Amino acid sequence: MAKSSRGSGRKVSIKRLALRWLIFLGGLGFFAGSVLLVFSYFTVQIPDPNSYVTSQATILTYDDGSEFARIGAQNRTSVPLGKIPLDLRHAVLAAENRNFYSEHAISPTGIIRALFNMARGGGVQGGSTITQQYAKTAFLTPDQTIKRKIKELIIAIKLENTMTKDEILENYLNTIYFGRGAYGVETASQMYFGKSVRDLTLRQSAVLASVLRSPGYYDPGLRDGNAERLAARYRYTLRGMVSAGWADKEILKNLEMPVVQPRSSTGILAGPKGYLVAAVQKELNKLGFSDEKLMVGGLRVRTTLNRKAQQAAVLAVAKEAPKKAPDDLHIGLAAVRPGTGAILAMYGGPDYVERQLNNATQGIAQAGSSFKPFALAAALEAGISIDTVWSGKSPQTFDDKGKPYVVSNYGKKSFNNLTLLEATEKSVNTVYVPLGIAVGPEKVIDVARRAGIPDQVEMVPTPSVVLGVASPHVLDVANAYATFAAQGVYAKPFLVVEVGNRNGGVLYKANPQGQEVFSKEVMADLTYTLQNVVKFGSGFAALKLGRPAAGKTGTSQENSSAWWNGYTPQIAASVAFYRDDATKSLRGIGGMTTLTGGSFPARIWTEFMKGALKGEPVLDFPDPVFIGEDALADGSIYNIIPRPPGFEDTAQPAPVTPTPSQSPPSASPSPTPSASPSSSNKSGN
User: Fold this and answer.
1) Where is the Penicillin-binding protein transpeptidase domain (predicted)?
2) At 157, is the pLDDT very low, low, confident or very high (cuts 50, 70, 90)?
3) What DSSP line would sit under 348-378, residue for residue?
């Protein structure tokens, strides 16, 4: 028994000793923490909120590092507290800090919750008072660190000792971010309800108060699921107002939320530059940078956009586009650096605020004869020489899976025998359709995909595919021609080169990868042929560039779209004209009988390239190798594609005078057909 008593006594002594040590260490920790808190209080200064606001905008730069826009530069109008409706003030308190006027600047329970969250591996967040939120929003960074949290607490305490509660609330309501590029209640009221804050109803006030906790999570116009989450928080806010005596309980009988207006673009730069900002922001989102991070994160984003090229794009459209045109005429331009995929310039439209659809990256237009080079590349890969001889008679009938497919040349122009080189210069449909049949429509599509036409662009393996019945984006075609300019090296187009934080750290860096998808020999002959389009064919307007250039026009059936796609060794660019309704023609626009790719589009391209290449060395293309030349040098091959059994040649050589809108050195080329196999298909220019 004695031994048992002694053992029990030792255990009690050990427990007491451990408890004393815990008390001692706890007291020591509390003392050290208190000393640190006091030290921090006297050393941490309240910075100027205006300098914070300026430094936290995300800066977008050209490839040379010069700034062209900011995302999140504060869109804010300050309003005195007395002019902010009492209902809105109460709604914010109900949603964010119901005891704001009675409690101190910091919330001990909130701090414990934040520390517990950190201990579990989460960020330092949650439980902040309005004073803390104001300290964080106006004076600190959004980083989730212990150091930042301590600064937040110290600044909050200092603010409470130097400002009244009303002053803190007024500053908070004028600086807090509500999403949609809106800082403060006045701008937020305009963005969400299209009215001044002074005109908000109680229910509208409750909506704004409910959004501000996390706009990306609650803004109903941002993504699916947000409306339901906002409705739940809206009900929470209303119940809080009733509970605090700030609203009559009758309001809870109808919890239907007022209608929020759609997200608008007025927070993004107006004019052509707005399309650049939106496109860069979209790519940043795909890279994992949220809108909220871009708005307040103070990032620095270096893009591929070239200042000289971008300015040249805007000026070229302003100078060469038709002065009088219908409102639904759209012009898109995209330029790419061959072999890298870097987007150098983009013209998405005259004003992003008026129309948010980017003509270069989002609008689509039937490509027309822009697709003929894909058939040419496929033929060269198959060993078919550009010196092979074909019949250019028009119309001609071909077999399309047992159905007659009648093809005519642009302007019903009929030709005698001519080489593939000459047929490309003149954009002869009745040569290119049988060429596509010879190599196989599937092969033509394969070449287009390898060059850069994405899978999202539908292409059907029928004889008409060579005539460009598909409808790609302008950027798609520009990048495909960039593959030609890079001697067969494809690279995915991109806008963002590097993302850094305000301290100089690199958060993201692009690593473009080029892939050889065509042989240099095939590309040499293709480029030589497309150079002849400029020298002797439908692209003669590009001769004014004064340096080696290659390219191809494209004009769709019924003249609903018109393209010029061209390149030098340094830049590939595409220009397209089209309308909202693909059934509407471009005829008559700019005083032209037919608006072809060799007219306004080629002129805009030429003017753009002059500016973009100013000061750049004049480079030559590689010499042609003349694939298959020896085997076909005698020129004895005529119409190497025989007519389908049962179909007669229906050529009617009745030449038509070329349209006065373009007077090329050689005969007018051929716009793009519909895919109907029984129709008389005319693809052109």
Assistant:
1) 335-578
2) confident
3) --S-TTT--S-TTTT-----GGGGHHHHHHH
Is the model's pLDDT at 323 over the cut of 80?
A: yes
429 phi and psi angles, rounded to 5 deg = -65, -40
Rg of the chain on CA atoms, in Å: 34
Beta carbons within 8 Å of 133's beta carbon, 6+ residues apart: 96, 97, 172, 176
**Is 464 part of the annotated catalytic residue set?**
no
DSSP string, 161-226: HHS-HHHHHHHHHHH-B-STTEESHHHHHHHHHSS-GGG--HHHHHHHHHHTT-HHHH-TTTSTTH
**DSSP-derived pairing of the beta strands 572-579 and 561-567:** antiparallel
Summarize pLDDT for 511-537 with one digit per residue, the tens: 999 999 999 999 999 999 999 999 999
Angle at the Cα of 591 from the Cα atoms of 589 and 593, rounded to 5 degrees? 80
CA dist., res. 225 & res. 214, Å (int): 14
SS (H, E, C) 604-639: HHHHHHHHHCCCCCCCCCCCCCCCCCHHHCCCCCEC
As a whole number of angstroms, the distance between CA 301 and CA 65 comes to 9
Sorted by sequence, the CB contacts under 8 Å of residue 193 that are 6+ apart come out as 200, 204, 258, 260, 261
Q: Which helix (H) or strand (E) holds 293?
A: helix 291-296
The torsion angle over the Cα atoms of residues 433, 438, 439 and 444, rounded to 10 degrees, is 20
Residues in contact with 532: Cβ distance below 8 Å, sequence separation at least 6, in sequence order: 421, 424, 425
Closest CA to 394 of 354, 345, 427: 427
Q: How far apart are CA 601 and CA 369, in angstroms?
A: 14
pLDDT at 657: 30
pLDDT reading at 124 higher than 90: no
pLDDT of residue 582: 80
Distance CA 668, CA 427 (A): 8
Q: Tell me: the pLDDT tens digits for 565-598?
A: 999 999 999 999 999 888 889 998 988 888 999 9
**Beta bridge pairs of residue 516:** 489
- How do residues 191-244 score in pLDDT, each as one tens digit? 999 999 999 999 999 999 999 999 989 999 888 899 999 999 999 999 999 999
* DSSP structural state of residue 263: P
Using the predicted structure, report yes or no on whether residue 505 has a pLDDT greater than 90: yes
pLDDT tens digits for 460-481?
Answer: 999 999 999 999 999 999 999 9
**Higher-confidence residue: 145 or 420?**
420
Catalytic residue among 369, 370, 668, 683: 369
Catalytic residue list contains 210 = no
Would you state the pLDDT for residue 654? 30
Residue 336 to residues 333, 490, 492, 526, Cα–Cα distance (Å): 10, 11, 10, 19
Host H or E run for residue 296: helix 291-296
**Residue 529 near residue 424 (C-beta atoms within 8 A):** yes
Catalytic residue (choose from 96, 170, 558, 607) = 96
Three-class SS of 25-85: HHHHHHHHHHHHHHHHHHHCCCCCHHHHHHHCCEEEECCCCCEEEEECCCEECCCCHHHCC
Residue 206 CA to residue 196 CA, distance in Å, equals 15
90-122: pLDDT as tens digits: 999 999 999 999 887 676 665 555 555 544 444
**Residue with tokens 């025998």, as numbered in its chain:** 417
